[in-house]
């Protein structure tokens, strides 16, 4: 409501329109509204982000917002184009790098996305947990389970169910029953992530290869805990 008031008072305030787009996106992707309103939340978010870009075409915040919203609407090529534009305008912005790297990797373009994510991590004093998620998944797909565990544990600063799922998967591969048990229990406390993990990852644009591999890893961790 603060952002809605801000754009009403100053309709030319590009940053406020961009942040309004972000929050409307969050309402849909994190389930803050009714399930049947998700499409409308995304559409309203995109309209706000596009308004921001119309006011300031080179506004990096607006480019990142529009990129993310397009991604969650399944418009991956446009999302990537906008993310690349944000990085081109400000190549030293760690968040712009992380957004692009994440968006590439979640769509299976690990070879390009992971180095970009690592750049974002290196340029951030205290990287948020999600910067590490796709790095850990890439290590998992390569069979680098100890490296994956270290990366997943680093990501756990965010307290998210994704981080706990990744720790559990690594623990399952390393036959660490107690760590797998603890991580699975913590994942179960994460709400929507625990209720339907495949749907959760697909909602964020993960490819079938990523979803299938993660579900196989979770199943192995669960089997290890059951003994």
Description:
There is one protein chain. With about 230 residues, the protein is mainly α. Helix content is about 75%, strand content about 0%. It is built from 14 helices and no strands. Helix 2 packs antiparallel against helix 3 (about 40-55) and helix 8 packs antiparallel against helix 9 (about 145-155). The longest helix has 19 residues, at about 210-225. The termini are far apart. The model has no long low-confidence stretch (mean pLDDT about 95).
Entry keywords:
227 residues, mainly alpha, globular
Task: Give a topology summary.
Layout: H1 2-9, H2 14-29, H3 38-55, H4 60-72, H5 76-89, H6 94-106, H7 110-122, H8 130-141, H9 145-155, H10 161-173, H11 177-188, H12 192-195, H13 197-203, H14 208-226
Largest sheet, described in full? none
Please report the number of helical segments: 14
Low-confidence stretches: none
Proportion in β-strands: under 5%
The SSE string, one letter per element, is: HHHHHHHHHHHHHH
Kindly, what is the distance between the CA atoms of the first and last residues, rounded to a whole number of angstroms?
51 Å
Gyration radius, to the nearest Å?
Answer: 18 Å
The helicity comes to over 70%
In short:
By secondary structure, this protein is mainly alpha-helical. The protein is 76% helix and 0% strand.
